[in-house]
């Protein structure tokens, strides 16, 4: 199955790739790599905001990270000219969790995006990763995730 067929079979779909909100581009292609700017926890019904550890629990943070992952895949699709079959693997994710100072389960939250990549891409979705806490994120987003993907030449 394709990435989008796999997502659909699991009740998920890709949103439209979001336009940048500041002075940056949403993605850059260099060689066989696509470097995608941080995607925040935006859903079709709006932005998931707040701090994990006070406003949100781990499961809510994980759901927010999944949304970031869907937004990453939407940007990857745009970078591939609308053809996700060009995607070869997820190389790296960088995850940022808007959280309280005493929150230490960042990896559990960012698993929302990591699990999505493995679901969507199989073994090619396994990646290296960073998962860190932050005192705040843009627009009070709960989670932000950036990524590097390999594509066909």
N- and C-termini, Cα separation: 21 Å
Q: Estimate nothing, just give the exact number of structural domains.
A: 1
Reported CATH architecture: 2-Layer Sandwich
Secondary-structure-derived class: alpha+beta
CA-atom Rg in angstroms: 14 Å
DSSP strand (E) fraction? Answer: 25-35%
- Largest beta sheet: strand ordering: 1-2-7-5-6
Approximate helicity band: 25-40%
Number of strands: 7
Counting H and I runs of at least 4 residues, what is the number of helices? 3
Q: Uncertain regions: pLDDT < 50 for 5+ in a row?
A: none
Mean model confidence by pLDDT: 97
Main beta-sheet strand count, sense and barrel state: 5 strands, mixed
Full CATH superfamily name: RutC-like
Describe the structure.
By secondary structure, the chain is α+β, with helices and mostly antiparallel strands. It has one domain (3-151): RutC-like (60s Ribosomal Protein L30, Chain: A, 2-Layer Sandwich). Helices cover 29% and strands 29% of the residues. It has three helices and seven strands; from the N terminus they run αββββαβαββ. The strands form two sheets. Strands 1-2-7-5-6 form a five-stranded mixed β-sheet. Strands 3-4 form a two-stranded antiparallel sheet. Helix 3 (106-121) links the parallel strand 5 (87-98) and strand 6 (128-134).
């Amino acid at each position: 199955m394709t990435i989008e067929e796999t997502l659909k079979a699991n009740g998920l779909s890709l949103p439209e790739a979001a336009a940048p909100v500041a002075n940056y581009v949403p993605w850059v292609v260099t060689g066989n790599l696509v470097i995608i700017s941080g995607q925040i926890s935006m859903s079709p019904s709006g932005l998931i905001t707040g701090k994990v550890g006070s406003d949100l629990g781990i499961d809510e943070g994980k759901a927010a990270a999944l949304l970031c992952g869907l937004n990453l895949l939407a940007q990857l699709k745009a970078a591939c000219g609308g053809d996700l079959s060009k995607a070869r693997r997820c190389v790296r994710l960088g995850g940022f969790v808007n959280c309280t100072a005493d929150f230490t389960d960042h990896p559990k939250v960012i698993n929302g995006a990591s699990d999505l990549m493995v679901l969507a891409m199989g073994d090619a979705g396994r990646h290296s990763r960073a998962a860190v806490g932050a005192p705040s994120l843009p627009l009070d987003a709960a989670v932000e995730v950036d990524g590097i993907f390999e594509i066909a030449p």
